[in-house]
Structure formats: C-alpha cells, structure tokens
User: Fold Arginine biosynthesis bifunctional protein ArgJ from Motilibacter deserti.
Amino acid sequence: MSVTAASGFRASGVVAGLKASGNADVALVVNDGPSHAAAAVFTANRCKAHPVTWSQQVVADGRVDAVLLNSGGANCYTGSQGFLTVHRSAEHAAQLTGTSAGDVVVCSTGLIGEQLDTDRLLAGVTAAAQALAADGGPAAARAIMTTDTRPKEAVAGGDGWVVGGMAKGAGMLAPALATMLVVLTTDADVDAETCDRALRAATRTTFDRLDSDGCMSTNDTVLLMASGASGISPSYDDFAEAVRALCADLAQQLLSDAEGAKHDIAVEVVGAASEQDGVDVGRAIARSNLLKCAIYGEDPNWGRVLAAVGTTQAQFDPQQVDVSFQGVKVCVAGEPGEPRDLVRFDGRDVSIRVDLHAGPESVTIWTNDLTVDYVHENSAYST
Amino acid sequence: MSVTAASGFRASGVVAGLKASGNADVALVVNDGPSHAAAAVFTANRCKAHPVTWSQQVVADGRVDAVLLNSGGANCYTGSQGFLTVHRSAEHAAQLTGTSAGDVVVCSTGLIGEQLDTDRLLAGVTAAAQALAADGGPAAARAIMTTDTRPKEAVAGGDGWVVGGMAKGAGMLAPALATMLVVLTTDADVDAETCDRALRAATRTTFDRLDSDGCMSTNDTVLLMASGASGISPSYDDFAEAVRALCADLAQQLLSDAEGAKHDIAVEVVGAASEQDGVDVGRAIARSNLLKCAIYGEDPNWGRVLAAVGTTQAQFDPQQVDVSFQGVKVCVAGEPGEPRDLVRFDGRDVSIRVDLHAGPESVTIWTNDLTVDYVHENSAYST
Assistant:
C-alpha cells in the first residue's frame, strides 16, 4: 500500500499525457494530518532542477502538506518558464487540496532540457486531486515510473504505527541519491526534527551507498511526511530503525531494477581504517567500468578490483589486501590465492569482499554490472 | 621508424610464447649512446606492478641503457616470484647488451595476477637481443600490442635531430596515464633533467588528458631516452615542443584505437576559472557513462553534460553555462538553445564544448563513447 499504508494520507496516480506512452504520469500524495511534520534530502548535484530548488524552500520550515510528482519530464534546465511551471502546478495542487503552495513539495523526473506541457500538467493535477483515495498508494507508485520495469513499494513499522513508501529510479543511482524519487509516509507522531534526523541517518547507509552507474541526477528527492494519525510516538531508535529498514528495502528494489543490469553486486569493504575510507574504496570499485564488464562476463577479475582500490587515498598496504569473489579468496595479501576456477556465478547476486587490513570499519556499496543492455537503453533514451 | 628513428638506438620484437595468440610479445630497445640520459613518468595508481617499482629505481639516477618490454602478462600482484621475474629478466637483458641490470627499465602489459612463464621470457630476451637492429623500431612496436588493433608509432624533431616513439594501449586510458606503455627516443644531446622537464610538461597536456574509460592501470610507463648521437643540443623550447607533439600524436592514436569505441570525443571546457577546474569538469563529463552511451546513440544529450558538470567543485553558475555539440549551441545559459535536431554526427569525431563563463582557462579532455563492443571486449578479456 506504499504511501497510503500509514493512516492520515490519501494518494492518486493519473494519466496527464506527459508521457508519450500514455501511461500514468502525475501523482499526488496528501497528508491529512493532524500533524504535518516533514523532512527531505535532495541531490548533491550543483545543477539542480527547478522542482528541487522549489522543494528545498518548502521543506525548510519542517511542514509539508502534499507532494505533487510527475514523470515524463524533469523540468530541469528549462529557465524561467520551467520555474513558473513548478510554481503554477504547486499553486494549483494547493488550491485543490486546501493548503498553500508553500507547503507543497514538487518532484519531476524524465528528460532534462525540455519544457513540460503546462496545460496537460495542470489538468493532470486536477484529475489527481479528484482521484485522491486512502488506498491510492499503488496508483501513485505506478505514475512516477520512468524506465522502471515495476513499481517499488515497501512498508515497515512498529506497534500501532507504520512507515510506508514508494520509489522510482532505474539508473543514475549515485552518489548521494540518484534519478530517484522517494516518498515515505508515517502515521507516527514525530516532529520535523526527528524526521530529519532519522531520514539522514537512513539515507546515509542505504540510498547513498547505491552506485549503479556513477552518475548523479539533478532531481533526486527523498521526502518523509508524518501525519501523527496513529497518536503514537515511538522511541527515536524504533522510528529510525523502521525508516532505515524501509529505505534499505526500497534501495534494494531500485538496485535490482537498474537499467539493463544482469547482476546486482555487493561490494563489501572490511578492515577499513575509517568509514570514509570504506566508502571511498567501495565506490572506486563500484565505478570501474572494466570490473563491471568483467562481472557481466562472470569473470572474477580481481586485478581490476585492486587497480580500482589503488586509485583511492584510503589507508592500505597493497601487499596486505585480500579479495574474495562469491566467498572464494582469489587474492591473498596482494598475490594469487585460491584458484579463480572455484568461483561460481549462480543467479543475479554477486559478492565481492575486499579486506584492507587497515582498521575495524566495514562498508557495503551496491552496484550493477555494465551490460550490453545498459548501453542500448541509455543510447536510445531521448530519441 | 618509431624508437629507431633517432640514431644511437637499436630495437627488436620477437615471439617468446607469452601470448596464446603466438604473436610477438617481447621487445627490447637499447641506447648505444654516447649519452644515456633518461626520464620517465609512471602510473599514479598506488597498486603498482613489479616492473613499475623496479623501473622507478632504475630511472632515479637519470641513466637508462635499455628497456625490456613484454606483452602477454602484466606481472602485477604476483608476489615475490613476480619480483624475481623482473629482476632476472633485467639481469639477462643487461648481460646480453653489455650493461648492468640497474640501468635496464622493464615494462609489462597484459592480465594482472598471473605469473609470467620465466623460461619463455628469458628465452625471449635472448632472441630479442640477437634480433636488435637499427631498423627494429616497427618490430618492437608490434611486440608490445595487447588489444591494440594496430601499432602506434610517431616521429617529430628539428634540424639534425629527431624524437621518435612507440605506444601501446587501448583501454584503461585514465587518469594520469593508463594501461599504456610509451617509449620515446631522441638523438638530441640533452641531459636527464631536460628530459624530465620536457616529458612531464608533455604528458600533463597529452596522455594525462586522455580518459577513455575512467580506469587507471597498474603498469603505465612513459620513458624518454636520449642518446646524444646527433651531437646537437636543441633549445629547451624546441626540444620540449617536439616531445609534446610526439606525445600528442601518440595519444590521439591511442584514443582512436580505444577498445570498442565508435566515436572519439573531444570535451573542450572553456571559460574555466583555473586549469584545474577545467580538468575537473572535463574529466567529470568524460566519465559520465550516461553521456558516453548517448554519444554512441548519436544523441546530443546536453542534460547529461550539465548533470556531470554539477558533480564538480569547479567555479560556475548553473544558469550561465553554455553547451555545444558539433558547434551547435544546444544549451545557452542553462536553458535550451539551438534545436538539437541541427546537430549532425558525421564520422568518428565528436566535439562537445562547455563554456563555464567563470574565467580565462581552457582545457580539452579526450574520451570515447561507451559501446556494446566495449562491453563485449571487456567482459571476455581474461576468459
């Protein structure tokens, strides 16, 4: 039930005609309260789309009443006309849902550098407002899909309260968010500060550690809204863990639907001197096109792992590093270890483990292989 | 004539049986003097192959008498046995050419993590020493090829002196060198310090600005040897310009032979506040898999260019940036400019120009598109 799993929320997804496919492309999620606490994290890209710069202002005071989302166009690099489109659509959604534009977050996804058809978008907002329903979560989740092959929804929670969410994204999953829109809702009674703290902690070890293709989007938004409708205030730890679990679930769904990928790769870095070292090493490995091609070819090419490790400034001694593929330690202390023939690639999941022997920290970065289908899909996206 | 274009050098390339293909795989280049000045630059990768750590010591005193090169194995992550192989092959080459091992540079290229067959290598060194000839440059250039489809050779020079060179490399061309071996020879009478200064200046704006696939090799070496056999000492500027021109020529040959590439892309960054900003922005663009796929699909997807620019810390205002493809300014001041339909992709060369409007500096980074053939070639390399 995704964003309508928590009480106090209504949602909808409708066809506005922004997508050439004729599929649903406008979604609306409304928080009916009694509370309207919210927090969000946005792309770290310095080239941000208009909906992101708008929404950063909306969220700043910790209150969000509704979120309007569209696929079929990112509304990014669209100049003053594009900014006007965001403003007008937020105004329209606010009017129809009885709130003010300054409390409406806007999210867009699709091609960059093209104007959205404002008439179609506004008509879509009208239709979405009319379609709002307490079981509208799945329709909303479908309406935000782009190259996703399936909607992503998840639910987690505690005793008498829940957190539910939806996500879209199938590429550009890195770093620090990706062409990724995520809306989380909860009926727990938590204030905006708690939402912010729990959300940042959760994204740091989930979405921020996805690195599908090393590309960072201009539109990424992860929004958490709390209605307080359950009347229950969980402990911070319980709440934070539920938000983390939800983000981890959605992140894995994004990973397993990454454009053209044949394998999901968990790059586990252990023995790092610091968490940052672990992240740096994991990311360097996850971004090696040569390694990602090797995994596509089911080749445990540990030399490409070490070549990537060597590009970082992390603390390690090249003659101490171990590398395992699928549990087989093919490199021990920088030399050939167990025979690479022992490595079996069965199914979609691939495990790469690197032991730096430099400290106590462990970090896992998730990525995908680089495939012929990835190239096909991304060479034909806008044409 | 590559490395034997300059007088004072002999070279050879022979079949030692290191490559399964049966193609030539051991090359030797000997400087017969009278001078033996030399300089080299090596991979910035912290995981360096044994031949690199060996050769760094050899070059330290500014004298090199010979360079032994092999394809068919990188001798990297091969432990103490691998180091012994380097040492023994250098000793053997030194003995056969009447010098000392401490003046013999060793370069290896091929798969990482596999031992070289020492018997075959040493027999190959014997054969290579016997085959040394004043016109042996082309044979040497062929013997260092791996996935290269053709040998790379070039000659430049001035009045009565020349610089010649050979290169191999067809992937991992980044940053700060790549699976790239380059040997340059000159009969100009220049000292080691001049060689070092000219070589570093040349590589900084040529090989260091190639970024084929974002991957950095463990074995890269660019070596310059001067015999002084012409008896002519050119001015520093003349010499440096010849070395630069030679490096630029070889770099373009490497680029145009990059694994599986369909297009060579020149990413020109103008209006940068500093050279480093230009390099950072150019590299970020050159490493965007999404953009590289778009070029493969001949799609002038300028949104992916700006998304890459936004990941850097360079000085720029997103609302001031212009982007041109093939001379068509498709993005002006962060908004759609001329119609993307005007962009024509004819032939192999693609030009992307980004104007940051932040300062006077210009930098060009060269890269390739990301193609189905790249994925095929790199998913099957070691198997």
In short: The longest helix of chain A spans residues 236-256. Chain A touches chain B through 64 residues (CB under 8 Å).
